[in-house]
Amino acid sequence: MLEIQELKAAYGQVQVLHGITLAVPKGQVVTLIGSNGAGKTTTMRAVSGMLKPTGGRILLGGKPISGLPAHRVTKAGLAHCPEGRRVFPAQTVRDNLLLGAFTRLTMGGRRPKGNVAGDLDRALDLFPRLRERQKQLAGTLSGGEQQMLAMARALMLNPEVLLLDEPSMGLAPILVEEVFHIIGRLKSEGMTMLLVEQFAAAALGVADYGYVLENGRIAVHGPALQLRNDPKVQAAYLGGTSGH
Ligand code: ATP
Predict the structure, then answer these.
(1) Distance (Å, rounded) from C-alpha 229 to C-alpha 84?
(2) What is the mean pLDDT of residues 138-145?
(3) Same structural domain, 47 and 101
(4) Are residues 209 and 116 in the same domain?
(5) Are residues 100 and 165 in the same domain?
(6) pTM value?
(7) 140 in a structural domain
(8) Which residue's C-alpha comes closest to atom 28 of ligand 1?
(9) Residue ID of nearest Cα to ligand 1 atom 18
């Protein structure tokens, strides 16, 4: 569903991604793990059109999307839930979600428009905390609730592929568990996801396949279970206190 081939990206003169190749098959969860600064967020930004790649190809459902602006990538069927809970603080929870649907409706394109009320209901079913807080301003939600709102809003786009960048960042352990539970539920419903996570063990627990990024290059990749049992991956990413 999503193919990244020899992707390169830079900030000014500083080359950050040196040719990354990875694939996210339909209905699977693929995780990208690695230390701070390895280039995980940069990969996500280059895929979603927030950063123009300096080389390589990205295909979504077989069609090239590399170098397209973010709104065209969204229109092609990719939703990016970025690091750091970007919600609209002065809008209610419900309006934040409807903005997700509005984005989809105004995009037109080949994808079905769907049923906004039904999608809203589905999002609120997945995130019961948001249902209770529908009329509350998003800025007054706790950090964990804002993270859930950002995920729910991305789902309102009815994406073919969902990119999740550090959905557990800064959350209390109980909420981290809840976020992973929701990722598992989305997976069981057939959602295709690329997941960047600091909690590498949990990410490999929910994922089908994993890639380890080191200094802008894929160092190791394999089925998630195999990576979890790989002594080198364990020592570098699964054993530390931070989970990095
Ligand atoms: P983290 O887990 O800390 O988020 P990451 O693997 O997501 O790490 P990136 O955020 O992709 O790493 O950063 C990769 C490299 O690019 C780092 O060296 C970082 O300093 C640099 N970088 C990231 N954003 C920018 C920017 N806007 N301008 C310049 N350099 C940047």
Answers:
(1) 30
(2) 91
(3) no
(4) no
(5) no
(6) 0.91
(7) yes
(8) 11
(9) 37
